[in-house]
Structure formats: structure tokens, C-alpha cells
Amino acid sequence: MMLRIKRVPTVVSNFQKEEAEEDSRHAGGCGRNCFRSCCLPGAKLPLYAFKKMNKTEGEKKSVGSENRESPVAFLDSLLLGEWEDRMQRGLFRYDVTACETKVIPGQCGFIAQLNEGRHLKKRPTEFRVDKVSQPFDENKFNFTKVGQEEVLFQFEPSTDNDVQFFPNAPINIENSPSVVAINVSPIEYGHILLIPRILGCLPQRIDRDSFLLALYMAAEAGSPYFRLGYNSLGAFATINHLHFQAYYLAVPFPIERAPTGKITTTIGGVKICDILNYPVRGLVFEGGNTLEELSNVVSDSCICLQDNNIPYNVLIADSGKRIFLFPQCYAEKQALGEVSSELLDTQVNPAVWEISGHMVLKRKEDYEEASEENAWRLLAEVSLSEERFHEVKELLFEAISCSIEEDNGVTQNLLDESDACPQSLEDVDALKGSHPGIVSV
Amino acid sequence: MESQLGLIEQSFDLRYSGWVREALNELPDSFTITDPCISGHPIVFASNGFLKIFGYSKDEVIGRNGRMFQGPKTNRRSVMEIREAVREEKAIQISLLNYRKDGTPFWMLFHMCPVFSKEDGRVIHFLGVQVPIPRRPKRSVSTVVGNIGNLCENGARAREGMFRCCRREVCSDTVLELGRGSALDSVSSPDDREIDINEPCETSELEKQKANAAVSNVLSVLTHYSELTGKLVCGKRCCLSGTGLLGSSLNISLGRIKQSFVLSDPRLPDMPIVYASDTFLELTGYARHEVLGHNCRFLSGLDTDPATQFQIKEYIRTEQPCTVRILNYRKDRTPFWNLLHISPVRNASGKVAYFVGVQIDDSCKNQEEHGLSPQRRQLSVVGAVKVAVRSLSMGASSS
Prior knowledge:
By secondary structure, chain A is α+β, with helices and mostly antiparallel strands.
């Protein structure tokens, strides 16, 4: 079902693009040039077809290709170019680069941004926040209702064994392509939404395929500063239409600097660790013999949380090599009135970016007074308690137990966790290393 | 790439007098020197000690980035810490799993530090020292943890080290046991080796001392050989970088953008160029030092339309992006039509810090690169520059 289009030279494609614009004007449809059957036929979008490869193959390739320097990856160029184009066309509600931002002094390196416009102009949440799985509702806002100009390109696996790019590919409606669209209220430069199989109108629930797609995108972009994030319903997703978010920020996130303590390694080589010394409890997944292995362990964990109605957030970092999973309970606490008014007044809804350490603040005084203690305090409210997190981990490990090595004694490890000693020396060293500039020369 | 190798040679030759490489190779240590100002942040020198340990030849390593020695089991967080140390122009000492040419992994203590220009405080090179950490088998009861030297000094300290390994039953007292330990070491089974790789080694004081000593020695050589050229280097930043210069982190980021562009600083008098990409220099035929500090108008000439120039000025004044087609001249005075896109670039304060100018040689018919139109490629440069400038101005500035 892959497109049977041959690669088209640029000169011709520019011409075709003009044609496409005229066509869509012709089509009429609902008049809003949206992404539904009224406007979609005849529409064209660039298509980036990524190469599906397993990890070992990928590594051999990258070793060989080290002969060249690593230039800005092509997917990067495509995304940045399209995003800047939409910026210059005035499609965003504000210029995010005009929003002041800073790294808060301290050990963790929390990042604060003063953004008064985002909150006011953001689409409001339209569904109940106490259920992680809710059916898709056609009547509520979903991404098929956005204008086509907000969609940057299609993102699909390639049919042959190589990356392909089609500057002007028709949208295969039966195939329901996955697309990348702009977030009109961006948190940072390049803020996009990855919408798997957009026409499938999937609710906000992770499954193996969609997570793998997100992981491929992270790997393909190849930059540790391009991270993908996911918020489940109940963990501050605002739209019940399956989507991941991503943007560029070329500084480390506090969560990435947090030390970790190894729990176990799955048969497929995926290493699972506790996050240590961080206000929010969570897990980090790394490694895996293949990208699929890593992807499936994480998505199976997400599915387990969904099935147990536990809201959660996911951060895909380090070009898809490290994945953080945070079960959370802030919305529940809010509803029960258990959150202090001081925190509520900041109006920060702790979604994946906030939990990772990137806070967008709406009030100037919050920005001026932003401190590591404040940030820590807010995030500590988001975290599950020690006991609750322990329960959730047991649930998770049971769900993915078939992938865990038999003799690892995972349950035993979990019970031993009450000892303060971190499980892995590696991370004790890393603790020391987390304060660079140690040695005076 | 010819010019790349040329740049790498120059990296040393312009800064240090002759025979510096020989002097460096008199040191027994394993170390590499990288140049953050060359795009890709490549290795410009690798000691013989280094080549021996890693199993590569000089040509396989010079011009490559240090990440080539990382592999699937290298700790990602450690990689990130090194990356950030480079960005913050700070020293770092961290244990890291690296891979030899034959694919075998091994643990080493990696000590990296910046080498500053004494004159203006810029980072000229990064020095990376590698001290292998010997495998210390953990299973056998009678083998010892930690370094022999360590134990002889202070049994108590060694025991503390062992507890950190969570091995409580190890005996540490006699030298005999130490002897037995090494014998066992040599017959350790493949299983043990596998476990050693997954569970990292402790770095002992010995490794750290070795690393510090090596750093000190290399810096002495570099300092000495830079005296003779008059372009002194030192291990500490002696003065703050001037405002006209971009930090090495921004340099490294911008160096990844393989297109012709310049950055100009509107806050300085006559808005001089503060960054010029390699491709820009190739396109226009100028050398970097001929371009930095000058306003872009040197690209215009006799037949350049003054109306276009005025248009550019207006857009800059109003901080608006624009695309114009302007007749420009290379150093050899040959003209070319420049499809020029200019855009303001804000830093973390939210205010305009630079203007980026992206040039496309319109007469060049070879515009097809991966299917992105020239206009899109220009915009992608703008985007990449915006991300870099914003992000890299967010933190507390490096001291």
C-alpha cells in the first residue's frame, strides 16, 4: 500500500506544489481547507519515508558513516525549514523566541520560560480527567479539523531499504498516513505534533505501532535536543486524538541529568532503571538489541498503565536511546483539593515537559522568583508516593515479565529497594560526575 | 575532504611551533586533542599511546569525532555529561566504556579539559586523556577489589570500597591474597568478563592521579610550544571572551549547518559579521579572518542595485525577515546572483541578538539537495540558527 511514486526532481516539484495549491482552492470542501474528506482529496504534502532498520544494523552503518561529519540530519532540515516557513506565514499565535527563558541556577538545571500568551490562547481541555482511556469523540476538537497549512509533512516507513523523500506526495486516504503538524501555541522553537494515522481518529492511547513510530522519529532526527513527549489523558493531555509532541531545546533537561539505579535487564537487552534523586518517581528504559525491543517494552508498560487507569507521561530522549516513564497523580489531587493554592495559582499543569524540568510560566512574578526549590516542590506534588510507585512497578513488571530474564530475581530487587544503597555502581560514579568541572588543572 | 584535513593541520601549525607533535608523542600517555572550531569537532591529534590502546592507525582517527569510540553499552548519561562539559567549556572526569577497533569494549577514566587562548580566553582545543581501568573480577571470594596500590596503603579504605561493591565477604589483608588475585584474574571465565562490562569498574585514586599527571604534562608541552608562536595557550581561562566572539558551543552547533550563511551582530558598530560558515567562505573565496569583523557590504560591488541594498537595510531596521536577489562579488571579483534570505535571531532574553544571512548562488543549477527546495533549505538554516542561539544563551555563562 506504499505510494508508487517515483522520486521527483526539485524543479518540477516546485511547479507541482503551486498546482496543488490551486487544486485545493478549487476543491472548495468545507472552505476551511481542513484534513477531512471534504477538503483532503487532491491535497499533497511532502512525505518523509524513514528507513526501518534494527539497531545492530543501524550501528554498523553509523560506524562506517563516521567518515563524514554528522551534518544537520535531513529530517531536521525538513522540519526546521517547514516550521520557519509557517512562522513567517504568521500561523503561530505568538513568536516563542520572543519569550524570555533561562536555566534556573542550582544543581538540577530546571528551565523556566515566561510565556503569557500560551495559556490564554491554548485550546481548552474538553474531556473528563479521571479516565485514562476514553473513546474518540468526533464532535470534540481533533486534528482532522486543523487547516492543511498546519500540517508539515507525512511521516511513513519507506518501502525499499532506504530513506526516501517526496516533496509533493498525494495523501493516501485509505492508508491513513501519519503526519507531523505544528503546535500553534508552541512551547519552544520547532514544537510539532506527531499524529499517527491521523485519519484513523485514534483516541489518546499508546499502542505498539504508534510508539514505535515515535521512536523512529526520534532516532531519525538524530539530535539529542529533539525530544518527543506524550501525555496520557488524566496526565494533562488536552486533546483526545492520538498524538506525540516534540520540539528543539539545545540544553540538557534536568531529568536527563538525574542519576539512575538499575533494576533489571530484559531478555531483549532493555535496561530498566529507577530514577534517583529527582522529585518525580519514574522509570528509565535504555538499550535493547533492536529499536523494536526497546519500543515494545515501553509501550507494553504504557498499555499496562492505561489498562489500570493510571495516568502517565513519557519522554523520549537521547535520539530515542533513553525513554522516561512517569506515572502521576496530580489531576486526581487537584480534583480532591489536595494541592496547595500557592501551587494552583501558578497554573502550571505538570505534563511531560514540566516533569522533565521545562516549566512554562504564565505570570511574571513566578518567572522572576523561579527557583530550584519551587520547581522541586511543584514536581514533588506530581509524583506518586513511594508505596504507590512500588505497587505500580510490581504491576508493570508483571505485565512485561515474559521479557525479563528468569534468574534476575526482579521481585527480590524490588523488595530490596527499601535499602538506601543504589543498585549500580555505575550510577554512583555518575552521581559524582554530575557536577562537572571537578578537577582543577 | 581536502580542506578539512588542511584545517586540521592548521589547527596545530598555526598555534604551536614545529616539533610539537614529536614532543607530545614523547609522553607515554593516551590522549587526544580536538578542535571545537572546526565543524564536527574533530580529533586533530592522537598520541601514540592512544592509538596503541584503541588499536587504530592515525589516519583512521584524525578528523573523526570522539563518539566513534562509543558503542551500544556506553552509558548514555555519561555521554550527555561529556557533551555538556564541551558546551560549557568545563573540565570533566568520568568513567566511560569505550570500544577498540576490534570491537572489544573496555572501561577507562576519561578526563577532558579545555585549552584556552591566553589572549582572548577562547577555547582553542579540548584535551582528552584516557586512563584504562583494569578489570577487577568481582565473583571470587579471594580476589581483591580495587587497586593493589590502594590496598597496600590503606586497608580500611579498600574495605570501604568493597562494601560499595556490595561484596561483604572479601578478605583484603595479605599480599599473598593479592598475588592469588591476579592469577585468578588471568583465568577468569568469559562470563566474568561479560559481567565486568555490564557492571562498571570503580575508579581508584591511581587512575585519577595518572589522568591528572597526563593532563599536566600535555598542557606543559602545549604551553611551551605556543610560546614560540606567540599565541599562548593555558589551562585556565585568563580573561573573559570579548562580546564579538561566539562561544565555542555556539561555534560547534553552527558548524553542523552545511550551508552558506553568516551571523551579524546588530549591537556592534556597523553590524559586523561574527560568524561565517565554511560554505560561505568557499562560495565567496574569502578566508575567515578577512570576513569576521566586517559588514557584509563588502560582498556588493559596482553593479549591485542600491535599491536592493536599501531594502535590506529597511528590513533589518524593522526586524523583519526578507528574501532578496542581489548581485554579489567573490574575492576574485567574479559576480554571482545571490538569493539572500535575512532573518532576525533572538536569544534567550527574547531580544534580537543577531541577524542571519543565508546565501544561495542563484546561478548554480545544482540546487537539488535531497529534494528540499532552495528556499526551504534557507529556512532550515534560519531554524537551526534560531535554536542554537536561543538555547545556548539560556544558561549561566561559563566562567
